[in-house]
Amino acid sequence: MVEESDGVDCTNDNESDTTRTVSTQSVVFLWGFRETSAEELRSRLARLHHVFSKDFDLRLLDKTCSALIFRSSDAASELLRDISLESPSLNNFFSEGLKAAGFDVYRKACSSGLWDSDLAEALESASLEPATSTISEHGSSEIYWNSSLKLDLKEYLEC
């Protein structure tokens, strides 16, 4: 479940232990993997970059894409920075065909109406488009993350 935070506590009594507010800078979308389980993907990732040894939630969103919610936005930023710089430490990551993007690319996919394809294709298209000022003006915000539920992209109110 992803909802942009507006200062209202959206948790109910049953979810109070598992629902938390996280910065959008802690969210990384990952695609390019073959159909797999979350456990198998987590195991593969642990061998590809040291940030995957840190604490994060991994949820498969569909057969083509997953969301990684890092406890630390620094870990997410480091991973995205290394990817954008095509760091040699990520050679295996790239050779497996994996791709990743931050929440800003998800926002861009939402605002561009790229939902005629699966999520991975929408994120891929959005990541190839040049940045626009309206996207970059969003900066960091907060979302509600419930580690026991699937991320429901339709519940994200505004991109």
Compact overview of the structure:
This protein has 159 residues and is of the alpha+beta class. The protein is 31% helix and 19% strand. It has helices at residues 38-46, 73-84, 91-95, 103-112, 119-128, 133-136, and strands at 19-23, 27-31, 56-60, 65-70, 99-102, 142-146.
Main β-sheet: number of strands, strand sense, barrel status?
4 strands, antiparallel
- The percent range for helix content is 25-40%
What share of residues are in beta strands? Answer: 15-25%
- State the name of the first-level CATH class: Alpha Beta
The tally of domains stands at: 1
CATH architecture: 2-Layer Sandwich
CATH topology: Alpha-Beta Plaits
Please tally the helical runs, counting DSSP H or I stretches of 4 or more residues.
6
Question: H/E series, N to C?
Answer: EEHEEHHEHHHE
Please give the order of strands in the largest beta sheet: 3-4-2-5
Let me know the CATH homologous superfamily: RRM (RNA recognition motif) domain
Overall form: globular
Q: For the CA atoms, what is the radius of gyration?
A: 15 Å
* Structural class designation: alpha+beta
The average pLDDT is 76
Q: Please mark out the parts with pLDDT under 50 across 5 or more consecutive residues, or reply none.
A: 1-16, 133-138, 153-159
Termini distance?
14 Å
